Amino acid sequence: MEYKASHRYADMSARKVRPFAALIRGKSADEALQLLRFAPNRGARLVEAVLKSAMGNAEDRGERDAEDLTVSEARIDDGPMFKRIMPRARGTAYPILRRICHIHVAIAAEPEETTPPAPVVVTPAVAAPNVTPAPAVQA
In order of start, what are the domains of the chain with their CATH numbers? Predict the structure, then answer.
């Protein structure tokens, strides 16, 4: 089962948060939490909060083994921008773009390891009879 959490309209640029999503993608939930906890960035705090929320959702829905959960999806999307204008010299203006992002994290239980099916033994086909090549013609 997959458990999701998201933080929409996070007040930080997606470019600053994406490295932390890439850091935890595919890792176990506990290991990902430890990696984010010791990163000294504000983006790590935002992703950490969303990961804790996803783990809480899993616990709330009856997941018994929190150690068996892995981060199946960690995605950072761009949100809308606040657009402002900064007046500059000689009547010009520079745009100010306040960027916002959406943080999505999903965790899932590790799939049970199943035994692979027995390999199929293929017997080789009957070999072609030995044919001797024709002698080369000398000129």
Answer: 2-109 (3.90.470.10)
